[in-house]
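Input.
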Amino acid sequence: MAHDRLRSDSMTPRISASQWRAAWSLFPYVWRYKGRVLAAFGLLLGAKVANVSVPLVLKEIVDRLSEPGVALAVPLALVALYGLLRFGNTAFTELRDGIFARVLQRAMRGVIHDVFQKLHAQSLRFHLERHTGGLAVDIERGARSIRFLINFTLFNIGPTLLEILMVAGVLFVKYDPWFGAVTLATLAVYIAFTVMITNWRLQYRRAMNETDAAANARAVDSLLNYETVKYFNNEAYEAERLRLDLERAEHASVKSEVSLAWLNAGQAFIIAVGVTAMMALATRGVVDGHMTIGDLVLVNAYLIQLFVPLNFLGTVYREIRNALTDMEKLFGLLDRPPEIVDAPDARELAVRAGEVRFEHVGFAYDTRRAILEDVDFVIPPGHKVAVVGASGAGKSTLARLLFRFFDVDTGRILIDGQDIRAVTQASLRRHIGMVPQDTVLFNDTLYHNIAYGRPQAPRAEVLEAARAAHLDAFIASLPDGYDTRVGERGLKLSGGEKQRVAIARAMLKNPPIMVFDEATSSLDSTTERAIGAELARISKNRTTLVIAHRLSTVVDADEILVMDGGRIVERGTHAALLALDGRYAAMWRLQLRQEKDQAG
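Output.
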């Protein structure tokens, strides 16, 4: 079924609308440097004029040398002109490339920069559903295709066609019109054949790209989950899955190469027929006396000059089709609107006291299953509110909605009376600090990961944040100290060490609103008590939302919300909830029993 869909999509005889949009989208990036572009085109035109003039001078040299008693000075002057034109063609071309190099690099840089920004602007839903490996391949291929498309479209296809038309014009004017007719007929047949076969074989190129991207995504996903693979002794299983993906990629690649061989053979046959016809006309002209030996040399030179780039033109067209195919996904990322966007009249969030209010909030990741229903509570300025409940009760979703990773389906969320959908996302997130349950670190130094909370912070403040998170002693024990690299996703650190890094960078950010999502879940009891005191200190005079599994960490909360099935089923202080002897009291007794069992 998938194969049938791929075949029908890729047999389209014309470049698709999305491919045209992708190509046109490059224009603004190039035209920013129109001075250099126009200068490059001027040099290109000079190079083509010089190149077309070379056979004309060569004809004059041969004809002058064929004349009896010709003075040596005349052929030598023509030879000097011949050499000058040859050099001019090369010099103009190299100057053009030198002037245009900066345009090409800056255009590529601009596109990749915009795609990177667009990816960060996408919603959390997009990133939860994407495959990192496949996305990386799409970006890398798209960047390579941009370079090819800009360079060869501007400086190969158009100029080559211009040169062919100039040569055909010379042949029409100076010789039998049949020379020009054969030239244009060969060109027309060659282009028609190339377009038709290239469109036909595009299905194999797309299949090759898709299977290659799938294999890369599989490999990256497996390596990112290296520890899981080891835990379950599934190295052979992962290798077998990758082998099947690579077999599919190999099959598609072989089909692509075989179809390319047929295309090359057909192009060579068309060129051979055109060259033979042109030389037959020239030979007959010399025999009949209508043409000189110099004319024969000129026609031969034009044939070489025309059909070598014509053969290259076919290759360029194939590669442009491939490049456009590769660029579709890249520019699709640019065209994809983010799920969460600022309102047209969005203003900066003004935090005065820091009150957070959830008003009758309802939300679902999928419309078929509600996550939150009629959630209503207030965190007064400087107060701490804790949310507890079983896994899947919707606790972490509250933090995601507060950060506006998703928009609520019903109700609203207010900060100091301002609906968070009416303020800019940047200003909203600037005023909220987060210590997540699952801390993911950059593959960089410890210092970089701590300083990420406020990259412009002085070093002294970064070190103070590390000390407050009880990281300083651990870092001092490392040979490279703060310059220790933490590995991919922080895999060189334990869960507790990663969580302390997260706490340190939240402390460094120093926002008026704090969110702790199981902030001490990976810490031992001793470290948890020490850091708990620090968390209590930084929570003081800040509006704090604590999402907790260990009830012992929230006994000091001003209010505890007990959630079940996306609803708040109980609320009150620790003492009040114990006195109520409901769900919270049952959870408290269960955890006390577990702690006693562990201690025993």
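The longest strand covers residues 356-363.
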